[in-house]
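Annex B. Sample input.
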Amino acid sequence: MSVSAPPSPIGAQNVRNAQDAAATLARAARAAGAMAMEWFHAGRRTRARVDYKHGGSPVTEADLAVDAFLAAELRAAFPYAGWLSEETADSAERLSREWVLIVDPIDGTRAFADGDPRWAVSVALVRRGAPFAAALEAPALDQSFTALAGAGAFLNGARLSAADNVSRKVAGPKPLIEKLARRLDLETTPKTPSLAVRMAHVASGVFGAAVASPNAHDWDIAAADLILREAGARLAGLDGRRIVYNRDAIRHGALYAAPAHLHDALIAAARS
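Annex B, continued. Sample output.
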């Protein structure tokens, strides 16, 4: 059954449509996570076939199977939305859509293939360039993140509040975080392989801040962006501006995530 598009946040029917949309994303992400777990072996190499794309990044048969599953489920549920996925050939058709589904079937494929549990299924429904609903399923960590614009972010059903985040850890690529750690009196920690999980862990308080190297794609960050925002945190580049999705160019520069009260200081330190 398809979910009607909520054209405006005003009105009871549109609220119900929005909640239905978020619930549909969450169900699909959970099912996709369970599917991926059939190929995952904690601490051991996956039994899934592993191939390599142009440029050397890996893709497993699990990535492709999950992508096909999500495409079938979500395109049927959201017939009004365009489609952008890491494992599907891109089409300019999405640029003409008010709504677009942005998907990473397995964010952190290298970790998944090596038996590292820090990977996730990332799904976001974006409207006019801004994430509207999101689900981030990390089944090997037993973590289900969800968010809906204006309605909060949740981890395993518990509301998230970045204002409660007291972690002094900053996660990310070592060259990018060492200077930040010195300037802001933070403790460096090795980067989490899944960028989406790394960012979401700022919302949940595992990290006090997180950094992404340049060239993250829309599908890496769209779901985590909404989770952060709805938890009271921010994700932005050096310009400090809110990220716009579903543009012709889907790559981004270095990105910085932190609770709202620390984000300006993080950006200032990175600029200097």
